[in-house]
Design goal:
Layout (H helix, E strand, L loop, with lengths): L40 H27 L7 H20 L9 E5 L4 H12 L3 E6 L6 H9 L5 E4 L5 H13 L10 E4 L14 H29 L2 E7 L10 H21 L5 E7 L1 H4 L6 H14 L2 H7 L1 H9 L13 H12 L6 E2 L4 H12 L2 H7 L3
Parallel strand pairs: 1-2, 1-4, 2-3, 4-5, 5-6, 6-7
Keywords: Membrane, Transmembrane, Transmembrane helix
Organism: Parnassius mnemosyne (clouded apollo)
GO molecular function: oxidoreductase activity
Amino acid sequence: MAAGDVTRRASITAPSMHRRPSARRGSLIKNPQTQSQEVPWDIIDRCALPIVLCHAFAVVLSTLLNALHLSQVSVFTLFLWFSISVTGSLWFYHNLQVTAAGKAVLVTGCDNVLGNALARRLDDLGYHVFAGFQNKAGNIDADMLKEDCSGRLHTLQLDITSETQILSASLYIVDHLPEGAQGLWAIANCESWCALGELEWVPFSVIRRAMDVNLLGPARLVQVMLPLVRRARGRIVMASSILTHVAAPVRGVHAASLAALEALAACLRRELKPRGVDVVVVAAGEYTTGSAWLSEEKLLEQARDMWKRLSDEQKGAYGEDYFEQALRSLEKYTKSADADLTAVTRALSDGVTRTFPLARYTPVSPREKLKSLLAEHLPRSLYEGLYTD
């Protein structure tokens, strides 16, 4: 769940007292000393196909007008005119936002920095926020969130793998909806369990836990909360990962659980469309989330536990050097304690606040975007030859 220290590489399988400083307040979003490298993939994804169609329509219309001797207008002129018109219309359409007044949003996973940052952003925008914490009692992050935000924000004890806590949260939300609200405007699920390691290394209890948190918990949460969301004709936003489209070693269990979540979301989108409920997936990249999911302390703890559980035969087959190298390959995603979550947080909030949200947002680095496009469109043998990992 985190990566090792780049400058001081103690053995990943040996006990360590190194602790990573906790992210707080301003560092939840980004390091103020660094400039955000966010790429507006949502606008590009929304405009790319219409612009291609503009060119196709320009070619057809120019050919037709010239053949009928009605006009000598060029393809480029028509394409430019169509592109400006369509892009302007799409820009207006894309930026329409719902009013925040009287709307309530449930954000799960506020124990992690991403859920915490999203709850703060939605509170700043004027929404009533129900912030769910897996462990609320004695949690300094919950206390700080309540202290820093407005009176519209409520903190909840909500472990999404607990049926009792989900039902209790639903009753609390019903009792504390803003005046005049017909229901719950949105569910933003930011809870995630990052199980790392090659499949043979990961204990089955960890695999089960990953499925419980990443798939079964969100599914049950939606089941219970859906009547409230349907009444408000709101939306469901699921945090996922670009790894569902890009195969990578050591991340198989994590990617599998989130791929199942995305498949569920795709089907749910079709089921709820007639009822006016949008379903949005935010597939973030490893570079853009960075230490939001991976902390050094948790990775070292997980690595030591996995190594201890391996049989002597397995330890001999893989070797400690290979085991450590495989897990340390993740450290490039956690170089800074102050991860820049601007792109991911904006994508999640756009899923909640936009009048016409995209079905899938991809707040990823340019390198990850290229890799995912090649993974989807290249022949598998060619892609695997390019990316041997």
